[in-house]
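MODEL INPUT / OUTPUT PAIR
PAIR INDEX: 1
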Amino acid sequence: MNEKVYTLVFKNIEIGYIREDVDGDLVFEYSDAFKSSKMRALPHFPNVNKKYKKSSVLNFLLNRIPSKAFKSQKFTSASELIGFGRKVGHSPIELVG
């Protein structure tokens, strides 16, 4: 099974990547382009040089999902959260992949 990779994008700038490894664990890390930019780090991921795992990534995705989705959908895996967190009306950040 191949690792799945999703890209966080803000105004055509790649912020970083969320990877789902073969065990289903999610990992976020900033892109090199973002690290060399003057942009501020995301609140959920304050250190641009750190790899964030599981709970930090899950919290980020959960905050992107509209509450209606929780009422109508039963989530059984972390990867299912990604589909609901791709583009959120209140957030300028897109999740592509």
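PAIR INDEX: 2
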Amino acid sequence: MELLASLFLAPATWTALLVLLVLAVGAARDRRWLRVAALVLTGAAVLVLGQLLLRPVVDGVTSAEEGGTASAPPLPCRIDGKPADQVVDYRIDLFPVVGFSCVLADGSAYDTGRVPTRATPLTAALAVLAGGTLYASRRRPGA
């Protein structure tokens, strides 16, 4: 299952980056530098989103969902110094920071550290910069 998720996620990310690169080269040939900057920033946001945010989450979910011998607690929850024997479930945190957390029997949870904590703000910042640059590139002077 983990292999299947990785086989889909990596090509989708790299295909999007290739398309953005081709568009950026076309814009550079026309000397539309703000558009080039917007496309490069969008490519960086796609790369960070696909490789730093989504891939660790997908890998964590697929390894947690694998059944069989020694499947409890889920593999991502087996961290030294954490109460892995009390884990009853896992959850995907989306706000304020994307992450993979293990839920304990008392309802509390702990983050596994699979997703870098700086990846969510970095993705958001790159997306805002790309959007602002794209907006600036489409504005016409004097309009």
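PAIR 2 NOTE: The longest helix spans residues 33-65.
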